[in-house]
Amino acid sequence: MFTPDIVLTATINGLMTGAVYALIALGLTLVYGVLHIINFAHGATLTAAMFGVLVLNQALGIDPYLAILVLTPLFFALGYAVQRLVIGPASHGEDVNILLVTLGLAIIIENALLAIFRSDTRSVDTPYGFSVIEVGNLFLSTPRVIAFFGSIAVAVALWLVLARTDTGKAIRAVAKEKTGAALVGIDVRHVYAVTFGLGAACVAIAACLLMPTFYVNPRVGGAFVLVAFTIVVLGGMGSIAGALVGGLFIGVVESLSGLYLGESLGQIGIFLIFILVLLFRPTGLFGAKA
């Protein structure tokens, strides 16, 4: 049996990891909520952003957290351009075609990264990578604490954008009824591109928050996007609040499963929850019936 302090530490660490999972899932659920498709290139985009952090750090000496200022607008612009210039024209307005195009993009990105960086696993060396914050009897990883509050701040900022700005209102209108939105003058193609841009910006920020304590190789994004998809299903497809709550919950489940079952079996609990949600509440915690 583990002491209460160990269980509490594992729970808090799970919450901090889950916040980053939630940030990755936010981009995935946002794209689904507006376009009603799963973006298969989401994991590859995360991997590319993580390599972006690595390159900025090793070539220019830019700290991973400062890289947020560079990579967030860059990946927003890339996401916007890819959707507007590649995904939109290639899909011809068909949802099935969008799925195939994003799958093709994922394969292209992954293989391009493999060709450039090879299959080696790499990491960023920072002076605070192993530093901890002492809270009573608990020792919390400093980078994970930063990642937790950073992810929560981004989630709140994204909610404010969607709730309070004209662009956010346009995104919500297109998500609800794209034909009606077009009839009142909203540029649906522009909204689609902005949505993809926001999704890419979310994973860029997540990459910057992950890299001080994680590693990167050309296939690492796939593992994260599987967890993110579970979070999206748990929270409710298209729900921002669901992605945040689901991410925190999944992070705790993974941490406690790793504690009691061993690190290699830590994700068993995640996929058990995934199956149970599909069986008993397929709309998720915050999802609505179609």
UniProtKB/TrEMBL annotation:
InterPro entries, sorted: ABC_transp_permease, BCAA_transport_permease
Presence of the UniProt keyword Transport in the record: yes
Residue ranges of the TM segments: 7-31, 37-56, 65-86, 98-117, 138-162, 191-211, 223-253, 259-280
UniProt-listed CDD domains: TM_PBP1_LivH_like
Highest taxon of the lineage: Bacteria
Localization per Swiss-Prot or TrEMBL: Cell membrane
GO cellular component: plasma membrane
GO MF term set: transmembrane transporter activity
Family per similarity comment: Belongs to the binding-protein-dependent transport system permease family. LivHM subfamily.
Protein name: Branched-chain amino acid ABC transporter permease
Organism: Salinarimonas ramus
